Amino acid sequence: MSGRSEGKRPRFLADRMLGVLTRHLRLMGYDTLSANALTPGNPREDTVLLAIAETDGRILLTRDAELARRAGGRGVYIRSADVMEQERQLVDRGLIRQEFTFDRCSVCNTPLRPAQKKEVLGAAYAPRKPEGLSFFWCPICRRLYWEGSHTARMRREVGKKEESSRPG
Predict the structure, then answer these.
(1) Given 1.10.1660, 3.40.50, 3.30.1380, 3.30.70, which CATH number is that of 11-101?
(2) Which residues on adjacent β-strands are paired with residue 113?
(3) What is the pLDDT of residues 65-90, one digit of tens each?
(4) Is 94 exposed, middle or buried (0-12, 13-18, 19+ CB in 10 A)?
């Protein structure tokens, strides 16, 4: 796995339409809260999101142009429905680097810690041959993380997008 996050990084709050982007940002080491953690159906949810962003010093990411406008400098309107284009938009704005650090749980946003041997052995979904792999554990979700084929696929996808966006 890549090195742990360093320095002051932006913290995000994502609306309900950005679930995949939320998980990707967490895997890149960005502290990212999701509106999906809020009780659904609140007619004042946009106001709640604005308050959380302001109080917690978070950048509000949204597919809702009006909500982004209301957030002012604290909001970013995400134009595309494609997660790789969403990431590219954040890279182009200088908000993120597309490097998977795997130091946050993609499900609950909790910082991961190195996994203990019993946690690796106790995870039914762990690779059969764990030699040479580094494992990380979410103490809240009790999920095991490691850099495997899924990670390699994500890295290839990022590389393809970078190549296609270079002038030519």
Answers:
(1) 3.40.50
(2) 137
(3) 999 999 999 999 999 999 999 999 99
(4) exposed
